[in-house]
Amino acid sequence: MAPASARAAQAQPQQPSADRRLSTLVGHLLPSSPRRTAADTSATTLESFPTMASQGSSVFAALAQAPEDPILGVTVAYNKDPSPVKVNLGVGAYRTEEGKPLVLNVVRRAEQMLINNPSRVKEYLPITGLAEFNKLSAKLIFGADSPAIQENRVTTVQCLSGTGSLRVGGEFLARHYHERTIYIPQPTWGNHPKVFTLSGLTVRSYRYYDPATRGLDFKGLLEDLSSAPLGSIVLLHACAHNPTGVDPTIDQWEQIRQLMRSKSLLPFFDSAYQGFASGSLDKDAQSVRMFVADGGELLMAQSYAKNMGLYGERVGALSIVCGSADVAVRVESQLKLVIRPMYSNPPLHGPSIVATILKDSEMFNEWTLELKAMADRIISMRQQLFDALKSRGTPGDWSHIIKQIGMFTFTGLNSDQVAFMRQEYHIYMTSDGRISMAGLSTRTVPHLADAIHAAVTQLK
Ligand SMILES: Cc1ncc(COP(=O)(O)O)c(C=O)c1O
């Protein structure tokens, strides 16, 4: 059997038609192209260049309008709505009680320190990013005393937030891992299937959420993972599952771990909400640490978008926990080959902020307090919404609102009810009924409760 890398090379999608289209385009554009004869060139007028042709015509004229992203499109629609009572619960970003984006105080301080440091330059980072940031990120998720870190079995590369980390990990697996199928929970974050398919993996799903109980379909999950082919990759949300807000208990995690290890299923953790679920960074990393403690291998995609509020800075890390230090070195060398042609090397500012905060115990403590305050506000929004629905006598059991954790609540509202609430109450959410608790405030809870009450009583 050919080595995995050779098989991967064979399996790389060939794009002859794309290449042909490109060289045809170049042929059209360049008068000196060998494809054009002298007679052609002498007859060339400005109008014969498609890009310079009369106004309105385009080489892209046949292009269809692409649909809006189902999640980001909610904000596009919200921005167009002139209503003064509109509420955006689609966006996965924290908002203050006043509905404003929040820049953490500790982040502002770190930025000030970076700006005031005259020795800082703007040179390129290495392909793998800021080394200090990578070390601190691995420590944050795996724990300072993690045996995998102490044994140098972890390789970490800075990536473009959580999405970029998933993409780099996905492409690495498609090239170098023997099994190309990744199992993702049903439902999951809408970008997962696209990221992994474009990485070159085959995406399948495992049962996760039970609409009847609005909780975990644990039996379905175990059945589906039991019947996955040996060695398959399994995507796991480390905590605060998006979109359902439903996480396994620690006992359930332990059963999942045993099953996965017994079938050599490779865990690929997605940690986009460490600290956001419970307010504790360590508690939210428990699931991951259980898998590292057994000595097995795994991938970990980390994002600082939510827990440090660094959304637009695109700061994240991909760590691969390997069986030995020697393998970790070779894995890193191959990760560089994935990253280099994709974006060369990652940005400097975001990881510098993160490293400044993580390495200073006083700033780290300030961060944990600010993080806890965000998590607590979200938890309080859950309670307020639950109380408001109870006080209105809204039909149904709404206890899942306080049981689910993290940024999102999977309300159980159907797409007709979601459309009704948008039209009648100017409340925006994704069509699957997911609402961002971080977008709610004490002022907007009554409006949302009125809307939910009307939706469930008028549209069954
Ligand atoms: C489950 C999950 N994974 C990954 C991400 C990636 O986020 P980012 O690329 O902004 O870090 C998100 C963002 O919403 C998410 O919910």
List the total number of helices: 18
The CATH homologous superfamily of the largest domain is called Type I PLP-dependent aspartate aminotransferase-like (Major domain)
Distance between the termini: 57 Å
What does the radius of gyration come to? Answer: 25 Å
At CATH level 2, the architecture of the largest domain is: 3-Layer(aba) Sandwich
Structural class: alpha/beta
Q: Helix amount, in percent?
A: 40-55%
User: How many domain units?
Assistant: 2
Strand content: 5-15%
Q: Main β-sheet: number of strands, strand sense, barrel status?
A: 7 strands, mixed
Oligomer: single chain
Within the largest sheet, what's the order of strands? 2-10-9-8-7-3-4
Structure description:
It contains 18 helices and 13 strands. The chain is an alpha/beta fold and 460 residues long. The chain has 2 domains: 72-102 and 375-458, Aspartate Aminotransferase, domain 1 (Alpha-Beta Complex); 124-359, Aspartate Aminotransferase, domain 2, CATH 3.40.640.10. A 7-stranded mixed sheet has the order 2-10-9-8-7-3-4, with helices on both faces. Strands 1-12 form a two-stranded parallel ribbon. It has a two-stranded antiparallel ribbon with strand order 5-6. Helix 8 packs across helix 13 (325-343). The protein is globular and about 65 Å long. The relative contact order is 0.14. Mean pLDDT is 90; it is low at 1-16 and 31-43. Pyridoxal-5'-phosphate (PLP) binds next to helix 8.
